[in-house]
Model the fold of this input.
Amino acid sequence: MKIPQPFQYQGSKRALAATILRHLPSRMERLVEPFAGSAALSIACAAECRASRYWLNDCNQPLAELLQQIINQPESVAGFYQSLWRDQPDGALAHYYQVREDFNRTHDPLLLLYLLARCVKGSVRYNADGLFNQSPDKRRLGTRPQTMRGNLIAVSMLLRGRSLVTARDYREVLADCQPADIVYMDPPYQGVCGERDARYFSSIAYDDFVVALAQLNDRGIRFLVSYDGCLGGQSYGKTLPDALDLSHIKIEAGRSSQATLLGRADMTIESLYISRALADEAGIRADKNTHYRASRQDLQTPLFTSALPV
Ligand SMILES: C[S@@+](CC[C@H](N)C(=O)[O-])C[C@H]1O[C@@H](n2cnc3c(N)ncnc32)[C@H](O)[C@@H]1O
Done:
């Protein structure tokens, strides 16, 4: 089954979802994503009917509202997108800038969908005041309305009636998690964009995050975290401390788009950390440094199990 995506999103885990899902139980009461973004993991999980319920959270309020509307009223979201998309005279960038200005004034989630579909390389950017400031892609007009409609309806069919969507800080979400939950976290991590991470509306402090993970361990709540990684031998993001007693898996995520542009073969390696409670359940023990390649052909093959320099 082709996994639908509600919108393109910087840092989406769509390509890695199948590999990450291998480390989750076959049946779950509820999957919680405190940093949902485009909810790629929950959507892939729902396509395999693995969880009874989903909790999608993202502190970016218009983004969370957009997810909520896609899940509950996909037809009206698709209709609005179609009218906005058809409004744009071929290649007229002024239309995009007008929508962007309207969005920054109103925070209307439906305008955000158009911006996400139409912005350059699908990579959102926010300025220090939290205003969306990414430029339009001059070479393409964004997802065609028909394709968008198909994706939105498919996402809705997977998640409707079984999802809670909120726009809270991740720590509030973790505080409300229950022992039966499985929590998948994909927070923004530092290192690729300098001090302030313009890719997202908000970022998190490393020390706070480590404390939050320790508290989950203390409460026996099972979790996974996508955190640091490396690109062409260069690490980004700080690794999570040994004191958290996590299993650390490295996933080969393919060539970065930047490397492709430069004609280089730099490989992105992403870390996946698994809490002790979950690793024991899944039988992941001594192989703390298992390394997987996440490619379409080879999602199932562990490459090697020795430590890698990350
Ligand atoms: C790496 S993205 C998640 C991408 C997602 N896994 C996907 O597949 O699309 C991180 C997300 O965390 C959100 N975020 C940042 N700080 C947050 C916070 N303090 N609480 C909740 N969400 C936060 C950002 O808005 C962003 O959408």
